[in-house]
Structure formats: C-alpha cells, structure tokens
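Researcher: Before we compare anything, I want clean individual predictions. No alignment, no superposition, just each chain on its own. First chain goes here; please echo the sequence and then give the structure tokens.
Model: Echoing the first chain and its structure:
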Amino acid sequence: MNRMAAIGVTVSHAVEQPEPRQATAEEASLLGIQKAALVTHIRRTYYSDDGRPVETADIVVPAAHCEIVYEIPINR
C-alpha cells in the first residue's frame, strides 16, 4: 500500500468479510445484471501495524460471473 506508506502508515493486514445477497437496483444497473441477481458483497478493511483501521472498501461481484478464490500463505 504505497499510498499509506507515503503518509507514514504501515499496513499490516486486511480483513475481508464476504456476504452473499441480492443486488440492489443500482448495483444491477452498474454491473449489467438482473435486479435481485445473486452477488457477493465483500467488505475489506485494511489495518495499520498498531491495529487501527485505515482504509475500507466495499466490493460487489456478480455470483454468476465470478469465482472468488482466496490463497492463504502459511508462514513456517
């Protein structure tokens, strides 16, 4: 996160909360899908090394058009 580093903030981790739901009318229009189609809403929050939330994002992806895959590194 170069933007945060530029202002002296070190981002240590992010947390994502995926939630399946139906698209709103506005989301459906923007995504080119039917109103009430299934989507995955992901709330992402970035945290600084001292535990403060420093940035958030709401991501909405059509469930029928996308596959969400996570890779989780295991530190040994």
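Researcher: Okay. Second chain, same rules.
Model: Second chain and its structure:
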Amino acid sequence: MNYHYPIDDTWTKEEIIYVVQFFSLIEQAYERKVERKVIIAAYRKFKQVVPSKSEEKKLFATFKQGSGYSSFHVLKYVKITEDHFIKMK
C-alpha cells in the first residue's frame, strides 16, 4: 500500500528523505519485517529533522491516522527487544 507521509514544506530534500525513510520502515515493520538496527539508524536521522518531542508526536499521530500503524509502538518494541528483526502484529 501507499501511505501519505507527513511532510513539512520547510524541510530540505534530504530532511524529507530521512522522514519518509523512517515512516516507510514503520510501515515495513507491520507488513513484513525490518532489521532492528536499520530502524534505530533511521530514527536517529528522523530526530535530526524533528528534535521536538511535541512535533514528533504530531507527526506520529498524523501517520497513524493515515496508515493505522503506530510509530510509537514500533520504537517501544525496538527498545525492549534484542531481536535482530522487528515484525509487528
């Protein structure tokens, strides 16, 4: 499926790529599986673009509304597991 990713018009092309890659990995964690270390690396790049926790929550909510996928739950699982691959149910 194709989802609408939340984008800010003030971001550079590189920043947009980081954000889209992060949300794409969240999508993959639900639909297939993704390496834990890849999600961690993408989240670090995402945080360079969106350092504010409140803006992060807003973007997460927008993405969840459009896709049904929770970025928060994926990241929470990434923090508590030692599994090499993440597959959400």
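Researcher: What stands out in the second chain?
Model: The chain is about 65% helix and 5% strand. Additionally, Strands lie at 34-35, 85-86.
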